[in-house]
Specification:
The chain is built from eight helices and ten strands. It is an alpha/beta fold. The strands form two sheets. Strands 1-2-3-4-5-6-9 form a seven-stranded parallel beta barrel, surrounded by six helices. Helix 4 (113-121) packs across helix 5. The radius of gyration is 17 Å and the shape is globular.
């Protein structure tokens, strides 16, 4: 039996703006990456999302991003490693406080958006993020793109790491995700997205846009909670993986 964690970025509403269907999606995922207020989310949304995750027994993770509400944390910033370390500590601390107050525990950290993609390639930035997580709680799991600098940095400092793969994104031959600004960055059909995941989990590789195979070891699959058909896809991927002898369960 193969095994995979399904994680989803949640808690991305803000003030009067509601994004996604968090309560329903939590029925189909095993880990929740909760926005911590910098790229999305606010204190009330964080509290509510933690409550929902605890109610549905879904593992809670911090999803720290760049301080860019307007750009949803998806725009690169020239951030110094020390500043990156501090904003991760700040955001992780905020989510830990809510989770502890509600009787739960933060299990993992997954950087968001541009911070995640920058750290996948920038060794110094990756090291700063890993140091931040380790300084707050060395028992936390660091989620990062499979084969990335972030995974390397996490292992080097002594963190448990989880290799993340993506259902709805295409890959480049170096194992990086195709930037959203480029054509064909997203996989458009549910069937193709799930087929890609099954190959990554069972065969240990992904086909890149350059028609090469990039080897990887998949521990957790990211699905996005803000798409028009996010709930339908969450249900579909959970059911299809289970029906194909893949056990959908939390990473630890």
């Amino acid at each position: 039996m193969y095994q995979i964690d399904l994680n989803c970025d949640l808690g991305e509403s803000f003030g009067a703006y509601t994004l996604g269907n968090d309560a329903a999606i939590l029925d189909y995922v095993t880990s929740a990456n909760i926005a911590c207020g910098f790229h999305a989310g606010d204190p009330t949304v964080m509290k509510k999302t933690v409550e929902l995750a605890l109610e549905k027994e879904v593992k809670i993770g911090a999803h720290p991003g760049l301080p860019d509400l307007v750009g949803f944390g998806r725009r690169n910033m020239a951030i110094a490693p020390e500043d990156a370390k501090n904003i991760v500590i700040y955001q992780l601390g905020a989510l830990q406080a809510f989770t502890k107050a509600l009787g739960g525990q933060v299990e993992h950290v997954k950087p968001h958006g541009a911070l995640y993609n920058m750290a996948a390639k920038d060794a110094r930035l990756a090291e700063a993020i890993a140091e931040a997580v380790y300084a707050v709680d060395p028992s936390l799991v660091l989620y990062g793109l499979a084969g990335s600098e972030l995974i390397t940095a996490g292992k080097r400092i002594g963190l448990q790491t989880a290799n993340e793969v993506f259902a709805d994104r295409t890959y480049q031959q170096d194992g990086s995700l195709t930037p959203r600004t480029q054509p064909h960055a997203m996989i458009e059909t549910d069937e193709e997205a799930v087929r890609q995941v099954m190959i990554m989990v069972k065969e240990g590789h992904v086909q890149t846009q350059q028609q090469t195979n990039f080897a990887l070891d998949a521990h957790t699959v990211c699905i996005h909670g803000d798409g028009a058909h996010a709930l339908t896809f969450a249900k579909y991927i959970h059911e299809t993986l289970t029906n194909n002898q893949i056990d959908v369960t939390a990473y630890r």
